[in-house]
Amino acid sequence: MSRIKLKRLLSQRRLAVLLEELSGRLGSPLCVLDVLGRPVLGAPGVHGPTLPARHAIDVEGEVAGYTLGDDNADVLARLLAVLAVLDLEKRTLAHDTLCRYNELTLLYDMAARGPALQEEEALAELLRVAQGVIPCDHAGVQRCWPGEPACMVQGLPDVSFLTTVFAEVARIHEAVRRSGRGEIVNELAADSRAAGVLSVHSMLCAPLRCAGEVFGLVHLGSRTPRLYTTEQLALLSTLSFQVAAVLENRRLRQQQQKSRQALLTLARTLEHALDEEVAS
What we know:
Blueprint: H1 6-10, H2 13-26, E1 32-34, E2 39-41, E3 54-59, E4 62-68, H3 71-113, H4 119-133, E5 138-143, E6 151-156, H5 159-168, H6 170-179, E7 183-185, E8 202-210, E9 213-222, H7 230-279
Antiparallel strand pairs: 1-2, 1-4, 3-4, 5-6, 5-9, 7-8, 8-9
Helix pairs in contact: 3-7, 4-7
């Protein structure tokens, strides 16, 4: 289906007036058909009983419709193609701007809410936000602190299904952990690292990394064919980095509290020992 809708383009009042004026100056009726051959402007019958030649409205290699008539209709087809490209670029820019705005809003919300969340809450929020901006039918987070066995901590739609998926793509996950860089695999069946009868078709994965250390990963995937992009991986990596920073800071604070408590205990012990020595 064509991305360009001629009916929408020709419904613009200023363009309609211009085309009417152009038709009058050329002295020939204008007729524009959509890609299915249905009239969008004018009517084929105005050219007489013999159907005139069709001239394709070629928009970046895609036929959006046709004009009917002589050489003047061919010029009109090329003019409409130029206008359609400009309209497409404008709508694409508006769509991309809205997407970037929504992504920035999500990142800001994540940054604002993250420090107040517990670890499980932060990981659940990561999956919720990621699924909201990246199409997928399953998602999971695996934690793997250095020196500790990897374990699944969050999984959608359920941990059981994600455990099976993670086993199938374990070598890909291991590569992400080792390199510290995310990966996209749009056709797992063609990747030699995938094992067994695969439950999913496409996936992307990003590490949970902070200060150069990987201590987990987030996985999104689809059981049906899907073409993930580098932009989506970059967004997932940014989200995972934010959550990783929150978790790492929380872990450091806990370690500092333990160290402080240990020092206080040691100081009290030494003080008690000195008091006993003085008393004796």
